[in-house]
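Journal club prep — side note

Before the paper discussion, L.F. wants everyone to see what a predicted structure for a comparable chain looks like in token form. Sequence:
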Amino acid sequence: MTEVLVLLHKISGNAVTQYQQTLSPDLPLICTNLLMIVGTGSASLSHAILRTIAPTGHLHTFDFHEQRVNRARDEFLAHGFDESLVTASLRDVCTDGFDVESTTADAVFLDLPSPWLAIPFAAQCLKPGNVVICLKMLLQLLSIFI
């Protein structure tokens, strides 16, 4: 069983509280309405989240790489996740922000080399008091947040 250490940023008004949390595959996702992932990549995290939030939630996933977005769209459809459950968008949220309504997201997962660039945009689309989850694989990069 793989566990992932993540930094959580709880945003409340202008205050950002940072803390660490270990997530494991058995941890249920309590945010089931609207989730966003930045850095679609192979879409494996997207698939895991979709299995958790279906049939009532919706996932928005963003990537700046067109081929990854198109491949993810094809895989979602092939695995039974249609547009009612997932929207895969070609977008660089670090410079262009999100194309969703303000304060609608239950959580934002940032799986990026420079997630701090997207945090201000993520804060705009989160419901008050909800979290930005930054997935970083290299501990030396985590030092930027600490």
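L.F.'s comment for the group: The radius of gyration is 14 Å. Keep this in mind when we get to the figures.
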